[in-house]
Amino acid sequence: MTTNMGKIDRGIRIAVAVVLLGLAFGTGFAATGVLHWLFIAIAAVFLLTSVLGNCPLYSLIGIKTCRMN
User: What is the percent of the chain where pLDDT is above 70?
Assistant: First the structure.
């Protein structure tokens, strides 16, 4: 698997994931129901793609946000 995500993109995804998890677990806004699980699922995908540095959607579209070596 090649890296197609830059550091800024990865950082933004991690920040969004933390916010979504905070909303899912820390507030009454999405404490239960479908929205709760949707926020958790999106946060999990964002965290996983950030750790791996590869976004499958970027690969399909042909986008790279990382610097070329």
Answer: 99
